């Protein structure tokens, strides 16, 4: 259940919001809002926002005390006690929500829980917080203001940057480095062995020790139960501001450029290099050793099988249909090479016929 | 190794089974069975069942003391000391197996393990069981008969319903609510942050605090390492009787109707609404904000890219073939728009030719 | 950050390496190497290797003290103080890296950590190591030299074979058996319930108790956050030498033959049987009850929908294209059955025309 509206406090004055976050204020600057709510659920003590033009009609019945609106919505604004015009209401909402969240946040108390197991040769900043049953090995560093959730595991010589937060049961294995202000969600595993084997003379796998690490920049978010493998010899590298959703798998020696986002269930095979500001849709896959340029968008469940040098949108997914239609079309796909040949044949014969006529 | 047959006890009398679970008893009602086994492995002390017509021939060599058979299998029944006829042997087996399981079950002892960390401001029912190294935060509620496995984490103000069982290392984050008789398997994470960002002026992600929760009905099962994100403002909602397999990812604000089942590795993007009694095949995907009607079946590894308003079966997957055939057909797929144009062209030209002749 | 080069010790003499691992030594057998590094990063104290012919040019600027080269690279070998010729440099590297790793390894100290919770009726070998906050239930067996990482859970009557290593937070549930020298990565869950329900008269799922176990051979590796379900009645079985990457999902009663490898994010549905020496590409899927022969390779993200009796390579994935081209081709795919009919029609009409001319 949403924790909005805030259970306590006076809330924020709309005038103060605009002073801090910008935008054009229309209406009553003294109006107070105590929480953020969707357009259809907001009440007089809430602030709402319109980010999708398709929801414009919702404004007519919206009961919010204040609304964040796109620049040219002055007419609609008049319905509300107060409103804020801004070029990007969604971004405005994000920043305001962070502010509310900070006000309301009950942050982890600094200190190490009595049941945590911290090696004497680990260094944990006095301003950091270590939860119940967490384990921190020899040589690990937990920097200022970092929060290590209950049951987390930090391997030897791993580094957790300042103000980085690990949710319960996250695992960061030996030697891996996380920058500042990262968020790692529950169950994520950073630094597991890459999937590397040679084949012996009988075809059995001979494990290649994975001796690289994972190096993660600042402001990176890593989803629940996501896994990022350590490199074989060199490191796996995740750039600043990268956002990774739940259950993503990143193979060894992958490099991901700054501010790229990967949606849930994506798989990236070993040694792939993904550029900056890319977006990889949910359940998509990227084969090993490929190079993907900056500003590339891959559609959900598409498989990237060759390198991409041009920015833009790419897709490759069989279109959904009723089972019956799909079965017919899929059968035809399996004959497609032959159909193409028959078409060529027809074209040739018709050319001849035309010559004859 | 299967724990069947039961190592102790007298087993169940076939007459008692039929009295409790129904069906038509043929043969010796005094016959006792001590466990359930597959047709090909069952011995005289076992009960077996036939649910797939294709296995009818297996009956001829089956050594079970009793067999559960479809309604019209009276002839086959005569081979066995006892048998039970029922319209749905598989359902009958499920119920009988639950009975055996309850008889045999060694249930968790009520009480809190000495190494568990339970906040004084959490409420744990005296009939509930909390395993070793589990952590339960302030304000959380664990209801009657609930079982919290070793190493589980229950966040502040979360609610675990009566007789709900969390297997080891499951995580339920703050404010999330589970109904009664749910089962959550090891490593599942309920209530991780949704994947929500605005983009700032430079294209970097600005995190949107996820302030909703996850609300789960009664009799829901959630697979190992599955993740369910909390809502952004509103809640993510999972209906009664929903069954979710392992490694499924449910995005923020998703709603799933009662008795729908999702097979392993499915990904459901944010704000999708799935109806009741649906079946989503393994590794399938559902894009964000779509609405899917009741009684819809999606084939494995198919991507749902638009809303579905009609019940029925849907599919969309490239048919498997040898690598060589696939390569030829896939190349033709990439020219398919052009092939279609060439076909149209041929048709036009032929129409003209026919006019001429 | 890579831990190479070794921080201490004299390293290995090239002559000793060849004596132990074979190959033809060229150059200075007294040369010492202290670590393995990629061709482009290696220095005079490192040994490098060339496994991809495409990197032959890298040799010209490589500064390694010794290089492992393919058999016919005698000319290139002359550039280096020492070199080793071998038919399979990658396999040679794997074995050498294991040797270095063993030299350098700081292995877990035998003994049970003070915070681990070991049931008095479990048997843990005196040479085994049990990490902080690990939980081992009644009747479980941990054999000689096994390493149970911090926060692992071993259910009642489970068996962990000799020298098998479980990384932090791995879960092995009751009755499951792991052979010798296995590696289980962080967050993996072995023995969760299979996804099995009957449908009752109203269409609600009735859970089928999963009473089989998981039986795993020797030398098996299981990736981070991978899940392997226990069998319904019989066991799920994983053969010797099988290598499973991260986030793979194996359904109940699956059987996997020896030395097969499954890449990341693969899903295998219940009761599928995969042969020996297969390779299943990343994010591929295998439907339930199928049988796959030995020596079969499935391409990434392909769905196996029928049994495969012949060894070879198989694929089925929609080719990636620009979003615009994809949209055009995907639309045509949805009309493909109709296009095929139109082509047939054209052929018939043309045949008639030809008859007429």
Structure description:
The structure is a homotrimer of 357-residue chains. With 357 residues, chain A is of the alpha/beta class. Chain A folds into three domains: 12-104, MurE/MurF, N-terminal domain (Udp-n-acetylmuramoylalanyl-d-glutamate--2,6- Diaminopimelate Ligase, Chain: A, domain 1, 3-Layer(aba) Sandwich), CATH 3.40.1390; 111-314, Hexapeptide repeat proteins (UDP N-Acetylglucosamine Acyltransferase, domain 1); 323-356. Chain A is 17% helix and 28% strand. Chain A has an eleven-stranded parallel sheet with strand order 8-11-14-17-20-25-28-31-34-37-39, with no helix packed on it. In chain A, strand 6, helix 2 and strand 7 form a beta-alpha-beta unit. The longest helix of chain A has 21 residues, at 336-356. The first copy, chain A, is flat, with a radius of gyration of 27 Å. The model of chain A is unreliable at 1-8 (pLDDT under 50). Chains A and C meet through strand 22, strand 23, strand 38, strand 39 and helix 4 of A and helix 3, strand 40, helix 4 and helix 5 of C.
Note the main attributes of this structure.
40 strands; UDP N-Acetylglucosamine Acyltransferase, domain 1; homotrimer; 357 residues; 3 domains; flat
Summarize the structure.
The structure is a homotrimer of 357-residue chains. Chain A has 357 residues and is an alpha/beta fold. The first copy, chain A, is 17% helix and 28% strand.
Name the chain pair with the biggest interface and residue counts per chain. A-C, 83 and 78 residues
- Tell me the radius of gyration of chain A: 27 Å
Q: What is the 3D shape of chain A?
A: flat
What is the fold named in CATH at topology level of the largest domain in chain A? UDP N-Acetylglucosamine Acyltransferase, domain 1
CATH homologous superfamily heading of the largest domain in chain A: Hexapeptide repeat proteins
Q: Architecture of the largest domain in chain A, according to CATH? A: 3 Solenoid
Strand content range of chain A = 25-35%
Average pLDDT of chain A, to the nearest integer?
Answer: 93
User: How many angstroms does the end-to-end distance of chain A come to?
Assistant: 77 Å
Indicate the multimeric state.
homotrimer
CATH C-level name of the largest domain in chain A:
Mainly Beta
Extended strand count of chain A: 40
Number of helices of chain A: 5
Number of separate structural domains of chain A: 3
Low-pLDDT runs of chain A? 1-8
**Secondary structure: helix percent of chain A:** 10-25%
